[in-house]
Design goal:
The structure is a homodimer. With about 200 residues, chain A is mainly alpha-helical. Chain A folds into two domains: about 1-50, Arc Repressor Mutant, subunit A; about 55-190, Tetracycline Repressor, domain 2 (Orthogonal Bundle), CATH 1.10.357. Chain A has nine helices and no strands. The interface between A and B is large, with 41 and 42 residues. Chain A binds a DNA duplex (30 and 30 nucleotides) through loops.
Chain lengths: ~200, ~200
DNA sequence: TTTTTTTGCTAACGAGCGTTAGCAAGTATA
DNA sequence: TATACTTGCTAACGCTCGTTAGCAAAAAAA
């Protein structure tokens, strides 16, 4: 039926296109008919590949959660390293995931609230656990005297905030590579602006 | 008709409730019927006070834009001060607006994309102009040797990112006052985490 | 070959959407 | 008092939504 077999499965293509649309317009403002058109199908045909609109959102959100965890664990596996170094690597890992797929990251960060229960609660728990990882690093670093901060909870929030704004301005064809960005972010967050 | 006359006008009440709903569920996922119920009216009755759903969003977004500009201008009016000090005040002013109305801030930050043209383009221009204000301060500060940063554009983005994440975690009844938060944020962003 | 699975179509379902028309009662103005 | 404005109601408009049923053709499996 298809002229050339798609390199990605239809399902993956639908997920990818949906991610882009959710990113651009938001989950609630994206219709299945829009998605179908963007993918070259009729609306009803989507349901041969996908159970529901929310299932797509679920897959994107939880898929990215897994990516973040994997990246974080790899970055902090070498526990004999100085904690500040581990933190720097965790930052770079986080930025790596964000830049690899900006649309998916953005959906992960903003559209998860359209998940219905119990998925929504599960997701929030995952996200909290991830944040706790950063918080723990900052705490350890402070205890070890490598970092200085009056309030690790606060510091973790601020740090992730800076990183998570990235999908709103990052462009893959921009002048800075993902590695540059990661490096500068880590540098600036750890050193501050003051002279 | 009403037992006790509302202290705010109905229109203001509708705007406020809509802001809370847009914040909680998002603009697209909030229905006029939901809003009507929350405000104690029937759906059709809203239109005695409000021209359209989007008009509410427009008022919230542009209203907050004005608040941000006013606060920034006041914070940086004393141009004879050191630029780093002006920047600190601008940060505190920004946090002040954010914490004064978290829901409205959140709508300002996230829901503006549901504005239709030409309002949307106007809004983006306003927002860019606001960011440019921070960028200029950082640039001046760097030129004057008060600040140190390799890339003011980048620094401005990061700085506003940290601040703008606040509405996602700030609770008015939390353990830190808005002033504490503003002060700590400014401190941390200017000084960094490293020791 | 026959059978099964996959993929896609058309048509339609019930529901909810933003919004409007027409009307009534209350309130303010004259 | 008469007049106008404000506020709210009910009912409904046209439309879009997510989703399903039923069917056909292609692809894969037997």
């Amino acid at each position: 039926m298809t002229a050339l077999p798609p390199t990605r499965s239809r399902k993956a293509q639908i997920d990818g296109t949906a991610t882009a649309l959710f990113h651009a317009r938001g989950f609630a403002a994206t219709s299945m008919r829009e998605l179908a058109t963007a993918v070259g199908l009729e609306a009803g045909s989507l349901y041969s590949h996908v159970r529901s609109k929310e299932e797509i959102l679920h897959r994107v959100c939880f898929g990215l959660a897994e990516e973040f965890f994997t990246a974080f664990d790899a970055a902090t596996a070498a526990t004999q390293q100085p904690v500040a170094q581990q933190l720097r690597q965790a930052i770079e890992a986080h930025v790596g995931v964000l830049t690899r797929d900006v649309a998916a990251s953005s959906v992960f960060l903003h559209e998860w609230r359209h998940l219905s229960e119990p998925a929504r609660t599960e997701f929030v728990a995952l996200r909290d656990r991830y944040e706790a990882g950063f918080r723990a690093l900052i705490q350890q670093g402070t205890a070890a005297g490598e970092l200085r901060c009056p309030d690790p909870v606060f510091a973790a929030l601020t740090l992730l905030a800076s990183l998570n704004w990235l999908p709103t301005w990052y462009r893959p064809d921009g002048r800075l590579s993902p590695e540059d960005i990661a490096h500068r972010l880590a540098e600036q967050l750890l050193s501050g602006l003051a002279n």
